[in-house]
Sequence to fold (711 residues):
Amino acid sequence: MTTVALVLHNHDLLADAYKVRLLLALLGLDYQRATVGILPGDGADEPAYRMLNPAGSVPTLVDGEVVLTRPEAMLVHLAERYDPAGTWLPVDPAVRALVFDWLFFAAGDLGAAEDARLASMLGVAPRRADAFAAARRAFRVLEGHLVGRHLDGQAFFAGDGPTIADVAIFPAVALAADFGLGMEEFPRLLVWARRIHGLAGFVTAPGVREVV
Amino acid sequence: MTTDAYSAHPVLPIAEGWHAVALTRDVPAGQALPVVLGGREIVVWRGEGGAVRAWVDRCPHRGMRLSFGFVRGDTLSCLYHGWRYQQDGGCERIPAHPDLVPPKSITADVHPVAEAAGLVWLRIGAGADGPAIPPGDWQGAASVTVDVPADAVRALLPPPAGGHAEVQPVGADRCRMHVVAAAGRLKEMAAFAEQLRLRAERQIPLAAE
Amino acid sequence: MTLTTDRAALDDWYVVGISADVTPQAPRRTRLLGQDIDVTRGPDGRAVVRMVGGAGDGLLCRSEERYGFVWTTFGTPGRGIFPLDEAAEPDRRLVTCGMVEVAASGLRLVENFLDMAHFPFVHTDILGALDKPEVEQYQAEIRADVDEVWATNCRFWQPLAAATSTGGQTSHYVYRVVTPFNVLLYKTCPEAPERFDAIALFIQPVEADRSIAYPLMVVIDSVNADADIVMFQQKIFLQDRMILENQRPRTLPLDPRAEIPTRADLSSVAYRRWLKTKSLGYGTYEYAGA
Fold:
């Protein structure tokens, strides 16, 4: 029996972990999954985990010698190593740059959605004040971009098909109900989300609807 | 509609008659989406056969919002227990009791609906048989939410020639503007919509909710 | 926000914190029935619950610790905290699964907990399968002697009934509503099929349309780490939360014309009837007070 090189230190509730689990599923990759407790004093605080990921963030991806602590970097790594066809991270420099632009948006501005979500669900104090308003602003940017893409005859965030940009953005959008952000303002995001649900290998996460 | 009273938002008096609530292109076949009109929660959905519907966003079983539901063929099913509704609003299947023919009294609350000028319209109360629309061949450009009262947006209209806008009140301090355009002017009108939003909201910080 | 005047709601015990998380270092500020409270632990190691603000500002409230939680009451309950015998069995794991805030009346949370018909749609491929949605006839009753609502002979096909499952099973359920805001279920234990796992949902009604849910697992599980048991339960709960926050109205309507029960909803019908016999208003749509 071959040992599986990929290990994901995971928690099912976190949007960042879902980004990676989603791409792993879309790529059809086998991996080991280890659950890390995220409440104060839990597994993420333990010395063994901190040796692996000094920031104590979840998820952590281990691929042989490579240890990654940022979900967007995990998406890039998985696409580059396991998708030689360049579907999920196109080779064309202009498109690639746009994919990276959206990865950074997902990590930056769109991170407010997860703040608002964890605050709403667990009463965790959000890292930024007024996370809800910031999340709503980020969603407006997403919606505006999809309107422009649609008028260009395109259905995804960058390139001609789904890329890791879509994967990085999807969890926040799919989990918007968790913090009470009404999707009545974002019809293009709803249409796009349904498309993502339809991709071969797609998996959900807790709080993401199963049936579409 | 008495069930409007169950909405999570305060329900405001709005003009009787036809209101545009979505761009046709934003309700593709098989899609259900939520709309808030003057505080009323509404589901707009389109069957695979192409016909659009607008109902009160509430399943009569346990009050779950139907906008979370899923479309199969020309039916809309509630996400909670899968109760399935036909296009006329009647419930045709209750999965927990597969052999039961649901009583005709189990229906969604239906609004009269129309499609014209690239827009989906619904009627509140009494009114004309259809919406009044400008003549021409219109396609959807953009819909934007603006955090100001509907009248404040109306004061900044009309859009440039080649475009047409309808304003949908959402709440006391929020509305949605749907902009349609003649062929070849879509991107220009989508940009107009974004610019109008920025202008209208300039004095007001983005509301938290 | 002000403390409710609903007598039936006041005269009951409510969870307001997880014992392990209540420490002397910092009081936890939370809200119960519209009243802000501080929950902390005194130098003698006992939990302390005190009102903050309002007419009762500074008032010390009765408190108890049971099953891993801190409980309090603002009134005079007619009985103590209900018995949960399984919690004392030596081979049981007692796993608190954190707390989750929900923008819905606690009464809606109880009804959702009692419901099986949603399993295939909300907990797809876990607690139910889309091709097996039928809910078979079961029994529900108000047991006047213990003043609880019980549903028995409940059965449902489940692809993945628990963290210990390795395949599908027909789960047998017994539901037990011990107070308007506290509910338990007993279900077939995959690891020891002749015994029952117990899962409780204790609800802190923050306001009439907002709650904090505290799931508790009282299970036989020799395989999984606590983190996996917790994650399984949290996953189930988060799937329900999306539904709960999108039911309208957010409070529970007791008017029979407002909603339409079927035979699968027998337990909720009994539950709503029981709430009426108690004159419980808080958390219902019809209650005019706060």
Summary: The radius of gyration of chain C is 19 Å. The first strand of chain C starts at residue 14 and ends at 18. Chain C has a mean pLDDT of 93.
